[in-house]
Each structure stands twice: as C-alpha cells, then as structure tokens.
Amino acid sequence: MRLTFLGTGTSMGVPVAGGFGREIPTGDSRDERYRTSAWVQTEKTSIVIDTGPEFRLQTLRAGIRRIDLLLYTHEHTDHIAGLDDLRPYNYKQRQAIPAYTNESCKAAIESRFHYMFGAYKTPGSVNIDLQIIKEPITFQDCTITPLIVDHNSVPVIGFRINDLAYITDACYIPDETFELIKGCKLMVLNGLQWAPKHKTHFTIPEAVDIATKTGIPMTYLVHISSHVTHNLISEKLPPHVKLAYDQLSVVI
To answer: What is the CATH number of the domain that holds 64?
Structure first.
C-alpha cells in the first residue's frame, strides 16, 4: 500500500495570504503546503481522503488517474471545497464515486453542494454516492474502520485503512479509538504548531506524545501551520515521528 500526501497545510494554506502568518516562501519546497489531503493506493484501489480547495492542482501533480473511493473527515471548507473538481473523474469513469463520512459532514455537503443531489440535480454535476460510515467496511482489498476523534465543537472521523491510521483535525482521541489503531504500521496525525497549545488541534509536542503512546512504528504529522519550518522542527523530533510534506510518498 502506498500513501501520498496531497497536502499537509492548515485551513489557510502555507504561505498565508494577507499578512496573517508567513507570506514569504522559505526557499524549501517542504514549507509550501496545500490544504491537508491524502491519496492511498493499494493493488486494487485508489482512495482519496478529503478534497480541499487545491484539489485539482493536487491531482495533477500527483498524477491521479482514477478514484475508486472518497473518504471525508469532516465538513470544514479546507476539507470539502474542491468537491466540484471530481467532475472529470465522473466523466471518465462513467459512474458515481462511493463516498463515506459522518452524519454532520454528509448534511453539510448536501446543503453546500445542493445542485449535486436530489430531484433538481444539475446535469453534468459531480456524481457521488455519499453514505454514512459507523462500522468497519470492506471495499475491494481494503478494510476501512472509522476512527472517532474530537475537534472541539465539530465531529471528525479518521480512518484506519488496513495498516494505516489517518487522523487529522483532532484535539482529543478517546480510548476506544486508540484500541482501534493498535497494530497499525503507520499513522498520520495533525500537529499544528510547536506552541502555544491550541483549542482545536494537537500541537507538535502533543502529537509526539500520542505517537509514542500508540507504539506505532512511524507517525507523519500534517495540518502544519505557517509558523513551522521543516528543517528547524525536524531536528527536534524523535526518530519515530516526522513532518510530512506535500507530494511525499511512502510505502506501508
């Protein structure tokens, strides 16, 4: 199984527009981050997790030719805004793309993208089969388990896909979810910034503590703010935790 990081940045992207956060590139391409999204490839399946504002650009630079399954973590704009860019995949694949998420995200997508659903669906608009996932499912050669986490006031789900645990936009992980990720070989976890503590996201030190607690051999951090520069922070991390960066591809 291969994991490609389509984006690793926060909701504003990195660098940030308008003078809020770092605007000027550092010269290190790893410090330029599209909104957080991922592509998982197995022998039989192509899975995309979240379609943010740069989704078209992400698919072009990653070379995504087919999407068999969509997984949505939650309804914030940086995770769903690129949904309309799925149209070419519908045209090519000639069928609806299955998609799974939680109740609140499903309701938000159907409201914000109302022209894609129901009796008044716009001809030629994106065609996805949006369903709620509450229990593990089998999809082709993948076992997919929803992972409940807390993003303060917004319900978020991560996903276990075979031996990969993918969790973003979390500030708390319940014990039940820790049980579900036991035995994973790789984890993706949000690590917003080094400090100060944030009310909706793990800081990098908090994420390191969680990675250590799980015993998972390798954890990559995503949803990284403009205040984090790859070289400086990487020097502070233990061997089992690394900063992810856009277009990084790893084999699990």
So the answer is: 3.60.15.10
Domain that holds residue 24: 2-244
Residues in the chain: 252
Task: Determine contact, residues 15/34, Cβ cutoff 8 Å.
Answer: no
Distance, CA of 206 to CA of 223 (rounded, Å): 14
What gap in Å lies between CA 207 and CA 197, rounded to an integer? 11
Rounded to whole angstroms, the Cα distance separating 210 from 214 reads: 6
Q: What is the pLDDT of residues 214-244, one digit of tens each?
A: 999 999 999 999 999 999 999 999 999 999 9
**Are residues 5 and 54 in contact, defined by beta-carbon separation less than 8 angstroms?**
no
Helix (H) or strand (E) holding 109: helix 103-112
H or E element that contains 208: helix 204-214
Model pTM?
A: 0.97
In a domain, 250, yes or no: no
Distance of CA 94 to the CA centre of its chain: 26
Report if residue 69 sits inside a domain. yes
Sheet holding 2-7, edge to edge: 128-132, 97-101, 69-71, 46-49, 37-41, 2-7, 249-251
Residue 251 lies in a domain: no
Please indicate, yes or no, if residue 10 is contained in any of the structural domains.
yes
Domain count along the chain: 1
Q: What is the pLDDT of residues 63-98, one digit of tens each?
A: 999 999 999 999 999 999 999 999 999 999 999 999
